Amino acid sequence: MTMFYEPYMESCARCENTFMTRIERTRGNCWWIACAIGCIFFFPLCYWLCCASSKDTKHFCPSCGTLLAIRKGGC
């Protein structure tokens, strides 16, 4: 597993190509927990939840679509 927020060079074991990964940012469990706590107790500080670094980043092979790594965001 890598700890990258942005695409990086990787080789895919399935299609055996080297390429720049394709990323998707999604809201994981930590994001929802932080959102609930932030909205209840720290409403003015909830702007952090809009940042890309607060979301999970999934890295995929652009050729075959294999999930290569997940970088958990936030917590």
Automatic annotation (TrEMBL):
Pfam families: zf-LITAF-like (PF10601)
SMART domains registered for this protein in UniProt: LITAF (SM00714)
Transmembrane segments: 31-50
Key words of the record: Membrane, Transmembrane, Transmembrane helix
Taxonomy, superkingdom: Eukaryota
Record InterPro entries: LITAF
Annotated ranges, domain LITAF: 1-73
Protein name: LITAF domain-containing protein
Source organism (scientific name): Caenorhabditis nigoni
